User: Fold this.
Amino acid sequence: RIVIDYKTGSAISVADFLTVPLIEPQLPSYAVAGAETSEWLQGIVVAQVKAGQCRLKGITSDNDLLANVRSVTALAKAEEIGVSDWSALLDFWNRQLTQLATDFAAGVAAVKPFDPLRSCRYCDLPGLCRIGDGEAEGSDE
Assistant:
């Protein structure tokens, strides 16, 4: 069984499910939502739906579950973060999501986008942005 989320945009990358902190926590949170889920779940996938271009992006527990969707063991990024199989990936997501929830509950609100160029690309509120505040603090002006 695979959790599939439909999106009309194309900004999501498989690597976004393997970052510290998680850039895309939605599908990983579905994957670790309950012990019974992780026992039967075999993958998470985003179905990108655009006129003339539809595709699947995601991660599965084993090769050949879905055409053109690679297993966790085939992803170099998974190896970089020390994830060797599906069970280890679920543990990784659980740790990342627990940290995110802990930070949120503690009121941690540091402004530190994973990739500022990408994170800020579609922002409509640059006048309210605090990302540049850290740079301004070190200046003499």
